[in-house]
Design brief:
This protein is α+β, with helices and mostly antiparallel strands. It has 3 helices and 5 strands, in the order H-E-E-H-E-H-E-E. The strands form 2 sheets. Strands 1-2-3 form a 3-stranded antiparallel beta sheet, with no helix packed on it. Strands 4-5 form a two-stranded antiparallel ribbon.
């Protein structure tokens, strides 16, 4: 997953990472990923709560949240700059939420509560609303699975 970048940048970065993984590269938590064609750096982090984040992947693989597919979150630095946990990072925590501090629906709805409907047995089911504009897509998590 990659959060907080624009749609085109996010898709471009993830496409390059997926190409490397498809070619046989393994990503390891704690690893620093540097590419010659991109000024930023990526730091691989394990997601502590993938069942709350990779909803589409779990639906595709028919897995309940408690037996979720594993997921990595790729933290990005500004061009030759700090990561979110380092001193001098120019954005607030909402710019790039840390793993385990957000769920899929909260990333898209920073403006207010998610709409809900009543599900089976009267439970409240939270739905991810459609972003209102292309700009709001930048706060949506994007994940690719192989």
């Amino acid at each position: 997953m990659l959060l907080g970048l624009g749609v085109d940048t996010t898709h471009g970065v993830l496409h390059r990472v997926v190409e490397a993984v498809a070619a046989g590269r393994d990503l390891v938590p704690g690893e620093l990923v540097v590419r010659e064609d991109w000024a930023g750096r990526l730091h691989v982090e394990a997601s502590p709560s993938p069942g709350e984040v990779v909803l589409g992947a779990n639906r595709f693989h028919q897995r309940p949240p408690e037996y979720s597919v594993p997921a990595f979150q790729l933290a990005w630095s500004h061009a030759d700059g700090p990561f979110p946990w380092e001193e001098g990072y120019p954005c607030g925590p909402e710019c790039q939420p840390r793993p385990g501090t957000w769920r899929a629906w909260t990333a898209a709805v920073l403006q207010g509560p998610a709409p809900s409907t009543r599900g089976v047995g009267g439970r409240v089911v939270l739905r991810q609303p459609r972003p209102r504009s292309r700009r709001s897509l930048a706060t949506c998590p994007v994940a690719l699975t192989l």
